[in-house]
What does this fold into?
Amino acid sequence: MGLKPVNLEEAAGALSELWSPKVVARVGAHYVKVAKVRGEFVWHAHEAEDELFLVLRGTLRIRLEDGDVEMGPGDAFVVPAGVRHMPVADEECWLALVEPVETKHTGDVITERTRSIEKQLE
Amino acid sequence: MGLKPVNLEEAAGALSELWSPKVVARVGAHYVKVAKVRGEFVWHAHEAEDELFLVLRGTLRIRLEDGDVEMGPGDAFVVPAGVRHMPVADEECWLALVEPVETKHTGDVITERTRSIEKQLE
It folds into this structure.
């Protein structure tokens, strides 16, 4: 068993590619991931899975059809299953995500930004 | 739908009772909780459930039978299902936890510190 914790901010900071989540831990059937993002992602939904966003550094806007969620460091927000959303970061933002192991990060939409779970586990 | 994020550090800071986790969000079958701790907890295990600890403020030592995990702010560590552990905080520490909704925070041990899930949801 590894007895070393993972520092989420360090793990996010070490990422070189934007919008390319990396799995850093597993809790039951959920992965904890970190990501570095800037700009707009894509509108998508996860049909059956909630998705938790936690801002580590910077600010994030999660656009929803009902309005925008504005988030700063330490803020957590759960996008419920089935809810269409689009993350937007005006400046570079470092994130942690908690989502079921079967979640595709672009949900029901496949784009050039879609990263396979194998890629996220590298 | 609530469009406001929850700030984990603020939520933890607002707690008045030590070792009494409060549910702040739900992601699928997992709760996200915050807690304020100081001193030693109790040795316990969760037979079937992994448990993620994330330090928000201060430092935490998770004692395991194989050794200690030393954690500072931003550090995350998953105690695997079935592994006996005891959290210890020399100074006051603010935490976030991610664990299945059915997890009892004192695991297989019932003590005067055990808080029912109804209490954690208040």
